[in-house]
Design goal:
The complex is a heterotrimer, with 1 copy of chain A (about 240 residues) and 2 copies of chain B (about 170 residues). By secondary structure, chain A is mostly helical. Chain A has helices at about 5-20, 25-45, 50-65, 90-115, 130-135, 140-160, 170-185, 200-215; strands at about 190, 220-225, 230-235. The radius of gyration of chain A is 28 Å and the shape is elongated. Chain B is α+β, with helices and mostly antiparallel strands and about 170 residues long. In chain B, helix 1 packs across helix 3 (about 30-45), helix 2 (about 20-25) crosses helix 3 and helix 5 (about 85-100) packs across helix 7. Classes of the chains: A mainly alpha (about 240), B alpha+beta (about 170).
Chain lengths: ~240, ~170, ~170
């Protein structure tokens, strides 16, 4: 059972299978095949996306319009939704446009592949540099405020009694953990929240390096709401 | 140091394509001289005994390896480079690039699918950006492509967009 | 592509100094040929109209900008915050570099402070590594410096470490 991203992709597949030109499609035939496919999906208990159903209704309407030429399409279309297809010519037009952008996508894929064969120096590769764009996003002195916050945290920690260091996480584990934690806070999270459970010095450093690495990889942004204010970490959700 | 070697060093250090005027600003040279030297540099690197090239992409200049070195250089680079865009993302990006500025609905009309998730991905990857709002009821957001889009696909500017074979 | 341009591309992309045998492995060429071509490349880049150089550091080769370009290149990377090592980290690193292999207690005796946090930092930054355990009761961990340490400070190997004035 092939999977189609949208109704146009499915229609296209059906037209290609029937080996007819887009301009000469038989609406009754294509509608029957289209509905048969949706029926099969239902039989397999697969979800049918609403776009497919809308297209099914449109096809049925176009078919009946052909039988009853006097019928007009309904004009009450909501502002933020795509207008419905109201004639066979329009359907053909849409299919042609869809095909056009399929070829555009192919061209872009070629460009992408060609570009994948060309390598530039990776940001921060040579010396451990922080991404300038990440630093910009972090606001003036984003990294330096991260550093000073970190040092404060460490000095506060030194005032506490030492703990036995157990099951330390690696930086990459910590990165995953931080990302997971930030995922639940779309507006950002106070930097100190990441160090709540009175961690060992190693854990603080691991978390800190995890943050630096995440900034470098543009996975998160760090900024201050005002000078000497709270340090906020936010996930960039790629 | 002369301007040409200086430009070579600057391009080496830059992390993204640098426009000529930005290079002029950094080096303190005239934009015209910068362009002239960059062209010489570009030609020198074209020689077959050189492994790098001065690319002219995203309205800037960038030093990069030649495609012929890909198979070898690949072994050194991180896996991220192998990540490619999904078909849906490419189609949506194609519509935005060729028809910009476009609204969400414009894209939906062409693709037959709501583009919400894909638009988010493209925005996050900085391939597209909000360029304004359309002057119709509801004032929907208009999207356009970015320099990062040009850079990713190795295009100099929008006029370089390849024309698809059939125009439908 | 010939070996020399290939080496140029490989050095360009590499994120750290590459030893000749590693380059040979990547390119599939003989180590002897790699060394030969690298030397030619190195000499070509020495020309005054080139802004880059092939450096021979940390037992490997690395492409880098020439010192004469530093002032200009700095302007470009001004925004690119460098991590700087803290005084404590530098002191600790110094002790490890000159006295390696050393234990935690060796460092504490010299600096008068427990080096735990600093050691962790240096380990994470890959400036130091565990080189073994000392054959005394408790078998404490022994630390030594890494290639990353050499690279960071631009040293070819440990013998290039300047002799400290006082050995105390």
């Amino acid at each position: 059972m092939p999977v189609f991203e949208g109704p146009f992709a499915l229609l296209f597949h059906l037209i290609e299978q029937a080996e007819v030109d887009i301009c000469n499609i038989q609406i009754a035939e294509i509608t029957a095949q289209y509905l048969a496919y949706l029926h099969e999906l239902r039989e397999l208990n697969l979800d049918v996306a609403v776009e497919f159903l809308v297209m099914a209704a449109t096809l049925l309407k176009l078919k009946s319009k052909k039988l009853l030429p006097g019928m007009k399409p309904s004009a009450d279309e909501a502002e933020e939704t795509a207008p419905l297809i109201s004639s066979e010519e329009e359907l053909v037009q849409r299919l042609l446009e869809y095909r056009y952008f399929q070829t555009v996508a192919k061209e872009l894929r070629l460009c992408e592949q060609e570009q994948k064969r060309v390598f530039v120096r990776s940001p921060g590769g040579k010396t451990m540099l922080v991404n300038p764009s990440a630093a910009e996003a972090a606001g003036a002195g984003g990294l330096s405020c991260l550093l000073s916050a970190f040092q404060q945290l460490l000095s506060r920690h030194e005032a506490l009694p030492r703990e036995v260091e157990t099951d330390e996480l690696s930086v990459s584990d910590k990165m995953k953990q931080v990302l997971k934690k930030l995922a639940g806070h779309r507006d950002g999270l106070d930097f100190r929240e990441l160090f709540l459970e009175r961690p060992s010095v190693t854990a603080i450093i691991v978390t800190f390096f995890a943050l630096l690495e995440l900034i470098r990889r543009r996975k998160i942004s760090v900024w201050q709401d005002r000078p000497f204010g709270l340090l906020i970490c936010k996930r960039n959700a790629f | 140091m002369d301007l040409k070697p200086l430009l070579e060093a600057v391009l080496f250090v830059a992390e993204e394509p640098l426009p000529a005027d930005k290079i002029a600003e950094i080096t303190g040279a005239a934009v015209r001289d910068v362009r002239f030297c960059l062209e010489i540099l570009q030609r020198e690197y074209q020689a077959s005994d050189r492994g790098l090239q001065v690319m002219n992409i995203a309205r800037g200049y960038q030093l990069a390896t030649k495609p012929e070195a890909a198979a070898t250089v690949e072994k050194l680079s991180r896996e991220e480079n192998r990540y490619t865009l999904s078909q849906a993302a490419l189609e949506t990006l194609g519509i935005i690039a060729w028809r910009q500025p476009v609204t969400r609905v414009d894209i939906e009309v062409i693709r037959g699918v709501k583009p919400d998730g894909v638009l988010d991905t493209l925005l996050k990857r900085r391939f597209i950006r909000v360029v304004g709002r359309k002057d119709v009821p509801g004032r929907p957001i208009l999207y356009g492509t970015t320099r990062e889009f040009l850079r990713y696909f190795g295009l100099k500017d929008l006029s370089e967009l390849p024309a698809p074979a059939t125009k439908g």
